Amino acid sequence: MIKKITAIFVSFIALFTFASPAVAHIIVYPHQAGVASVQDFTVNVPNERDNPVVSVRLQIPNGVSSVIPYVTTGWTITTKTSGSGDNSTVTEIDWNGGSIPVAQAQELVFQAQVPGSSTTLAWKAYQTYSDGTVVSWDVNPAKMKNLSDAQQDALADKENKGEYSTTQVINDLTGSNSNASANNTNNGNLTNQVQIATILAGISTILSASGVGISLRKK
């Protein structure tokens, strides 16, 4: 029995150990936002190579407005825009001049307002290493899912490409009154369920203790 538990534990650790590199790419948080909301977005940039990361470019999806990068010590931040005057919008944020050491990561933060309707934001990003290597995180995740592991490895190793991060913009405003009523009902039901579960757990504990006592007396 002990050997079986040990084997399961080792397999569990191995699963996460070997799976980690596959998901270690530039990710933009949060993954979900309400329509028209103003959010602080965090760009998590890991260094997966043998040289420091010295530059990061993030393309801003269409419909995202009021983009304001936060000051990041050690980095020079510039933006690219389209349009002019009141119609001017930020299309890209560039972080340059900093350094993300090998086997470390850094969070780059900016504020923005998401579109006023439900959509999926595709965050295409590009990171440059000190040796000039550019890794492009601009592949559609749906395309990646249709590729074999070998094809994904080839895309990563030969073309320095990976899938982009996404944020789902959801309509969380529709039917707010009915949702509130439903939530109150659900909360009431949940309370009742918790109370019942607590009572049953208490009864189970008493019965278990009684069983142990009877067993000991028999011995």
Task: List the keywords.
single chain, 219 residues, alpha+beta, Immunoglobulin-like, 2 domains, six-stranded mixed β-sheet, 4 helices, 13 strands, globular, disordered N terminus
Low-confidence stretches: 3-23, 176-194, 196-200, 205-219
Beta-strand residue fraction? 35-45%
Q: Indicate the overall shape.
A: globular
User: How many E strands?
Assistant: 13
CATH topological fold name of the largest domain: Immunoglobulin-like
Helix and strand run: HEEEEEEEEEEEHHEEH
Number of helices: 4
CATH class categorisation of the largest domain: Mainly Beta
Number of domains: 2
Q: What value does the average pLDDT take?
A: 80
Summarize the model shown.
This protein is α+β, with helices and mostly antiparallel strands and 219 residues long. It is built from 4 helices and 13 strands.
Detailed description of the structure:
This protein is an alpha+beta fold and 219 residues long. The chain has two domains: 24-170, Uncharacterised protein YcnI-like PF07987, DUF1775 (Immunoglobulin-like, Sandwich), CATH 2.60.40.2230; 177-219. Helix content is 37%, strand content 37%. The protein has four helices and 13 strands. The strands form three sheets. The protein has a six-stranded mixed β-sheet. The longest helix is centred in the C-terminal third of the chain and has 43 residues, at 176-218.
